[in-house]
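Dear support,

Our group has been running a series of protein-ligand predictions, and this particular one with adenosine monophosphate is the one our PI (initials K.S.) wants archived with full inputs and outputs. We had some confusion internally about which version of the output was final, so please treat the block below as the authoritative record. The input we submitted was:
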Amino acid sequence: MAVIGIDLGTTNSACGVLGEEGVTLIPNRLGDVLTPSVVGLDSAGKLVVGRTAKERLINHSDRTVAAFKRLMGTDHKVALGRQMFSATELSALVLRSLKEDAEAHLGETVTEAVISVPAYFNDNQRHATKLAGELAGLKVERLINEPTAAAIAYGLHDKREGNFLILDMGGGTFDVSILEFFDGIMEVHASAGDNFLGGEDFVEAMIDSVLKEQGMGRDQLSPRQLQNLTMQMETAKRRISQHPEQRLQLEVGKQKIEWAATAEWFEKLATPLLLRSKRPIERAMRDADLPPQKIDEVVLVGGSTRMSLFRSMVGRMFGRLPSCHLDPDTVVAMGAAIQAGLKSRSAALEDIVLTDVCPYTLGTGVINEDSPEQGEYFMPIIERNTVVPVSVVRRVWTAHENQTEVRVDVYQGENRLVKKNVYLGETSVPVPKGPKGEEAVDIRYSYDMNGLLEVDVTVVSSGKTHNKLIEFSPGALNEEEKASALQKLSKLKFHPREDEENRALIARGERLYESSLGERRETIARLLGNFDRVLERQNPAEIKKARARLQEVFDELDGEDWI
Ligand code: AMP
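Confirmed final output from the archive:
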């Protein structure tokens, strides 16, 4: 019986199997090898996973969830319709969908898998990942570290020994790992990263540049305009290497403008972000005490490493081009599949992590007065990936006139907004009354290997310290809880597989409808109505034809191919 390898990613997941001819990436029910890690419930209460759910993310945000990998190993629950789910349960639903796709593709039952996890995942998070597998009906005897999987996909384990640098830049984060391979053991040494640097930041910088040129702020755009502008910039970014002179029609506020998205323009705004990405690379090299010439291979993972500017920067740093001939979006799944194949032959690679790191960013909420939203912004204090034990202090000032108290809310997470992170607790300290910004407090977070966070808040003017201990190692499920989680998940039903393509198309149409206006909107509504009527007639040949036609129109409306 085949053991499959799964990359359970924050944005996308993928799975593969090792055969005689090497790795086959398994297509899902829609024919894609990438399944967005998004889960939703539709109006009929049925489960949608992957692309269909992703299309519904904007219009049905209360019934759709994404990026839950960031909550793995915590007790935090998120609402999906009227029910609450843990990250483990949501991951189980993605895994269940991948398992079914693998079974349909291989024509046999699949009961065992190797799943990849970030190297910085702690015991809790690893345990939660295995449990998610179990809830999906998969035995997960082994996990594999994501950088190790990438190294294996490139065949680096076939060498006798070596030092490898793995650079993984996705949509929102950048992770750097150094691996040392010897005697058949892959050791993950230094790891560093930037939790707030990824492909989305390049798009944000493009939007900022357009708006600055027009002398406008984001608050002058409608949500629909901002969404459209984001999508246009995303597409332009992906095409910029091949199409260095793109002419875009943009709608900003009341104006319609033509914008020249040139390679020069992009390079200028990407440079500060690229310089930022150099820092964690240099830090990891320093921590591992390795000069660039001792790195035998540099491997690129994650969609953003497709940017040619990023590749040339890495090339310049190491004096040679990085390994990037494999698809950076599926390279981890490929490695996991190889490890799964080796495992079924009892030849799996030993893969260990040598550093103990803090798996999440821990911080507090602060007010950002420049923001029109006046919301609570997350101020990281201990960054994810920091080697523990660690103690870090940050100073904040009073934000209001005559403030008598400073409240320190403690959050864990990777989002810029505190409301999207996990609240862990709070503590308050009295401060002497005075003008805004006069009094300061030092907030010290100390984190140790047992998952204990100590928060010390010192009032600078008086030297008085208040201390609070926060424990956040959530318990694993006992047998009874596991059984009830299993029951809850088994009650959720997927749509029949053959129905999925139609659902994905309708969800896409609804997303396009929402982001359009006027005539374009009416056309989409008419097309969707016609398609509904074809579906009602239940004639498979007619449905297939109508679906292909509709797909073509939507491709056109979506503008560009999202490659
Ligand atoms: P991931 O989380 O690995 O799926 O990464 C997705 C990120 O990769 C997104 O921010 C994309 O914009 C980015 N990406 C994908 N393809 C390209 C490309 N050809 N050029 C630049 N960025 C890309």
